[in-house]
Amino acid sequence: MSKVSTALVVICLSLLAMSPLNAATIPCVNGTYANLLATNTSGGCSIDDKLFTNFLFNGTSSGNPAPTPLTSSQVAVNTVNNGNSDIGFQFVFSLAAGGQQTNDILLQYTVSTLSGLPKITSEHLSETGNFTTTGSAVVDETLCIGGAFSGGSCAGTTAALHTFSNSAGSKITDSINFAPVSMVGVRKDINTSGGVSGFATISGVANTVDQVPEPITMLLMGTGLLFAGIFSRRSKKA
Fold first, then answer.
1. Which residues have C-beta within 8 Å of that of residue 19, sequence separation ≥ 6?
2. 133 and 167 in contact (C-beta within 8 Å)?
3. What are the residue ranges spanned by the domains of the chain?
4. Which whole number is the average pLDDT over 145-159?
5. What angle, rounded to 10 degrees, do the helices at 3-18 and 215-237 form?
6. Which of 156, 145, 184, 143 is nearest to 50 (CA)?
7. Is the distance from CB of 175 to CB of 125 less than 8 angstroms?
């Protein structure tokens, strides 16, 4: 192998070693929110090159009689990984409230980039809900852009997303774009209320982040194309 070829191979191997994709983390898998909570003791879990940590869960309800609050084991979790376009979770459950009742769950976690790359540039929220008459199905999400939630405070810039299905109308998706950051705290209040005499239910909520292309990956691709070009020229000369 020529000196040029050897150098290119060394560069490729070095860049691969630097890539955040090689970071040793526990993968997030399909299961329940209780499984995600269990990863807190080992530093969270990863989907592709995103690390998810600091999972929290709380279920509450009110009314007479009050519906039974959901537990973390009753919230199914499906991971989402569509490369740069969508990385995150789909939460599936049955949260319902009738007349004079409310049923609520609070989910919270932090998503960050392994080794700091690639940066997060947007966040997306969607809900699957239904209602009758005075019922209302709402997801209020607060983001901590560039930081994480600690107690009730945010170490970054706060922003809000909102979806709903009620007598005022329906908005089942919301999203926000922002300057590239390495960390986003996500806190969502998922609420169903029957109002005076109605009914409301939410059966699913999805949260994903987008990201800018990773410089290391782009450099590896460029190096690979250069490598292929060199061998192509040599083949033509032979």
1. 115, 214, 216, 217, 220
2. yes
3. 1-19+214-238, 28-213
4. 94
5. 160
6. 184
7. yes
Q: What is the mean pLDDT of residues 4-29?
A: 54
Global pTM reads: 0.82
Burial zone of 34 (CB within 10 Å; 0-12 exposed, 13-18 middle, 19+ buried): middle
Question: Would you say residue 105 has pLDDT above 60?
Answer: yes
**223 falls in which pLDDT band (50, 70, 90)?**
very low
Q: Given the DSSP bridges, would you call strands 76-81 and 31-32 parallel, antiparallel or unpaired?
A: antiparallel
What single DSSP character describes residue 41? G
> What is d(CA 233, CA 96) in angstroms, rounded to the nearest whole number?
66
Contacts 24+ apart (CB under 8 A), 12-18: 12/220, 12/223, 12/224, 12/227, 15/216, 15/219, 15/220, 15/223, 16/220, 18/115, 18/216
Burial class (CB in 10 A: 0-12, 13-18, 19+), 30: exposed
Instruction: Please report where in the chains the tokens 């630097």 appear, as a residue.
Output: 18
Select from 195, 204, 197, 199 the least CA-distant residue to 163: 204
Q: Where does the chain have alpha helices with state H?
A: 3-18, 33-38, 215-237
| Residues 6+ positions from 205 with CB-CB distance below 8 Å | 90, 91, 107, 125, 126, 127, 128, 139, 188, 190
Element (H, E) at 117: none
Cα gap 48→112, rounded to integer Å: 11
